[in-house]
Amino acid sequence: MPFRIEGGSLPGLGGTGSLLGDPYLATRTPTGWSTAYTGPTGSEATVVVPLTTSPDQGYSFYRAEVSGTAVLAPTTAYVRYPDGHAEVLGQGSLGKIDPEAAGQLISENGTHIVFSTGVLPAPPVQLEPNAAPNGTRAVYDAPPTGSPTWSP
After folding, report:
1. CB of 117 within 8 A of CB of 90?
2. What dihedral angle (degrees, nearest 10) is formed by the CA atoms of 95, 100, 106, 109?
3. CA 60 to CA 114: how far, in whole Å?
4. Sign of CA dihedral 28, 46, 52, 84
């Protein structure tokens, strides 16, 4: 069960102490409940904005903001994977990154990670060869591994 703590963090589990909330995941196991922090470290982002999760709770979106090694623009969107690592959400096979891409949906087991470009003030970036050109909003569907596909 995903949850967030606003204006502080859980002792011993990490977090940024962001007023917008730090994301956590509580999981029931055969021996009881466990809780894990699911956002960036304080050195990666001084503010984290927790967003949606997949139905199975394994994947999630968050935005890193203000300052830190994970902040590539005023706001940088990430997708977190079940193994705990996170990747910039708006990236494709052209080697370009749209750090302000907006996560829209993550399906069960991350089989579809849907995001769009051009939602925030920065101009959208073309991420795939056959996608809309730079400056045009686009919707992408990314598999858990590999490059996203573009939906006109």
Report:
1. yes
2. 40
3. 12
4. negative
pLDDT value at residue 69: 94
Which sequence spans correspond to the domains of the chain?
2-151
Structure tokens at 6: 């606003």
Residue 18: what residue type? S
* Pairwise pLDDT comparison (79 vs 122), residue with the higher score: 79
The structure's pTM equals: 0.88
Token digits for 51? 């967003």
Mean pLDDT over the full length of the chain? 90
Asked whether 146 and 121 are in contact (CB, 8 A), the reply is no
Give the list of residues 6+ apart from residue 84 with CB closer than 8 angstroms, or none.
36, 38
Closest CA to 65 of 22, 31, 14: 22
Cα–Cα distance, 152 to 137 (Å, whole number)? 9
Q: Which of 58-67, 86-95, 105-114, 120-129 has the lowest mean pLDDT?
A: 120-129
Contact 127, 94 (CB under 8 A): yes
